[in-house]
Amino acid sequence: MVRIKKIIWDFSDTEFEDCNYEEARKIAVLPKSLTLKEDDIDSDAERDDIIEYLEENYNFAVKEVVTDLDD
Question: What is the pLDDT of residue 9?
């Protein structure tokens, strides 16, 4: 299991780029944190794998993630 403590989404070049970040995140129904199970992603996944998973599943670019792997 991989725990993502913080996700910072990238709204540049989207219809939300001029909006307040938190409002845009809520309107787009994007999580600010998330726990991924083994079925979703391997527990030995690296940062790039996690970002790729998020971008593919939520259709928005990711600027940064903070995970339990960072501890």
Answer: 98
